[in-house]
Design a protein that fits this description.
By secondary structure, the chain is an alpha/beta fold. The protein has helices at 28-43, 82-92, 108-115, 131-134, 140-149, 152-161, 167-172, 185-197, 201-215, 222-236, 239-249, and strands spanning 4-9, 12-17, 48-52, 59-61, 97-101, 104-106, 118-121, 126-128, 165-166, 178-179. The chain is globular, with a radius of gyration of 18 Å.
Length: 259
Amino acid sequence: MTYTLTEVRGPVGIVVLNNPARRNALSKPLVDEIMAALADFARRKLRVAVLRAPPGAKVFSAGHDVEELPESRRDPLGWDDSLRYLIREIENFPAPVIAMLEGGVWGGACETVFACDLIVAAPTTTFAVTPAKLGVPYNVSGMMTFLNAASLRIVKELAFTARPLSAERAERLGIINHVVPVDALEAFTYDLAKDIAALAPLSIAVMKEQLRILAGARPMSPQGFERVQGLRRVVYDSEDYQEGIRAFKEKRKPQFKGN
């Protein structure tokens, strides 16, 4: 079974998330296919990559595949999280990556989209950061991705409430670049990609890498880093974590007790 579709239009490579039965959850097989496509685009020296779901999708991606989350009391720092590899692949891809969005963008899919260089969304797009709904923690590098996309107060609102953020508000806050009517979304995005592809690729590649390094240049002591990493274990070792995973699999609302 294939989980993505790929297409090349001149200097532009396109990856389509195509596992609607699982709402394009970012499972390891799906992530592996995205990364393989990006690696192929890089070898072919394509000048732009576009990441999207099929036209008319109600959900761009449901985020992390909950079935792949580690069992309780397993060391979270030892978890081989495929999403981490995908984020790095997007950030290190030697050309701009454009996210073209319709429908819901949930959980880890928000991080994936925010790691892209440009974001174009239909008015139907919403963003929801959902770990608190499941009783799971979030990793430090993912929080950095959020902080590079939005202000601290907006990140806190997204993380603490799990409420959907509309595309219109996201554009107003500078989180995404453009909101475009659904019937114009493809043409607008591919025109943007063509404009980028017509410019000097080495110049753009160097500027992308410069901005990546500068965006990650946040001072932190070794003790502080150890502290924020270790905080994840508080959640993984909790009864709430087990309850959140069970409730998701049993399709019911979790009953969190704070322990």
